[in-house]
Amino acid sequence: CSLDDFIATHVQACSSDDLVALNLACSIRSMSPDMEEAWHSLFGSGVQPFHIAFTILAVIGLIFIISVARSRPNGRNILILGPTGSGKTTLFHRLQYGSTLNGTVASMEPREVTTNLASDKSPAARPVNLVDIPGHPRVRDTWLAWEKSAQGIVFLVDAVDFLPHKSAIAEQLYDVLTHPSVVGRRLPILLVCNKSDMGVKAHSVDFIRKRLEKELDLLQTTRSALEDVGGGRAASTRLLPPGAQAFTLAALQAATGIEVGTASASAQEGDGVGLVEAFVRRCAPA
User: Fold this and answer.
1) How far apart are CA 87 and CA 96, in angstroms?
2) Domain named AAA+ ATPase: which ranges (predicted)?
3) Residues 20 and 123 occupy one common structural domain
4) Under a CB-based contact definition with an 8 Å cutoff, are residues 259 and 190 in contact?
């Protein structure tokens, strides 16, 4: 297409500064014969005015593309998942600010921030994109908007209120572990048992891990049987291949390469958060 058509098509995407450059390009495009002669005497006959015009437009286009790319997820996404009340937003603030601010309020919308971790000491540290996904069943699948650019998943459970909700927690974790993006990309996951500051009221990491492994094993058996009866492809949503041993996180890693680490932490007090920060920086190096 002609330069005039190109300008007419793209002018709406330009800022005021860009329009100044476009006006310059148009001025070059409409030079009088005397101006063109002066131009050739200055730059030589090999450089035509429209060459400069297209160069200016190419620079404008490059700036526009870069600005759009910066406004999108940067491919260094760390997703914070888990049921409602597990402390996800508290951890989100702890990682960003090193504190919990003035408390948190449950939200039905994801929170997202591109930031250095509060513990980063080097000014050259690269920022990471933290995404806090709501835990309510109706909206917790919004994490799928970041699935293809995620580098790791932090999955929080409430170590105090774990037993009454162990089945629901296992179902959410099962859906994450069997998701095609997690399986295909072998996304690392850190299972964080939060609220360790509650002392004896908080269950230990080993207790929670073993209970979840039993629940996940039961879910695999149940879902596979239902899909077999319904003619579905049970193997597509299995944690382990058919005929494998009872489910454990270690068996999952051996069979699929998906690493699920565990940690005990208190997002409220900051205890153990260093383990989470180390996981984040392993997934998205500084």
Assistant:
1) 14
2) 74-222
3) no
4) no
Question: Do both 139 and 246 map to the same domain?
Answer: yes
Question: What gap in Å lies between CA 75 and CA 52, rounded to an integer?
Answer: 35
Where residue 34 falls among pLDDT bands split at 50, 70, 90? Answer: low
Q: Is 150 helix (H, G, I), strand (E, B) or coil?
A: strand
Query: Which two tokens mark 20?
Result: 């100044």
In this predicted structure, the answer to whether residue 231 has a pLDDT above a threshold of 70 is: no
The pLDDT value given to residue 242? 85
Domain range enclosing 38: 3-70
The amino acid present at 221, given as its one-letter code, is T
> Taking the CB of residue 130, how many other CB atoms lie within 10 A of it?
24
Q: What is the pTM of this model?
A: 0.72
Whether residues 269 and 179 share a domain: the answer is yes
Q: Tell which wins on pLDDT, 236 or 267.
A: 267
- Number of compact structural domains in the chain: 2
Q: Could you tell me if 26 and 47 lie in one domain?
A: yes
Using the predicted structure, report yes or no on whether residue 71 has a pLDDT greater than 60: no
Dump pLDDT digits (tens) for 140-167.
888 989 988 999 999 999 999 999 999 9
Beta bridge partners of 162: none
State the chain's mean pLDDT as an integer: 81
Say yes or no: 128 and 256 in one domain: yes
Same domain, yes or no: 96 and 57? no
Which of 246, 244, 225 minimizes the C-alpha distance to 234? 225
Instruction: Note whether 248 and 213 are within 8 A (CB).
Output: yes
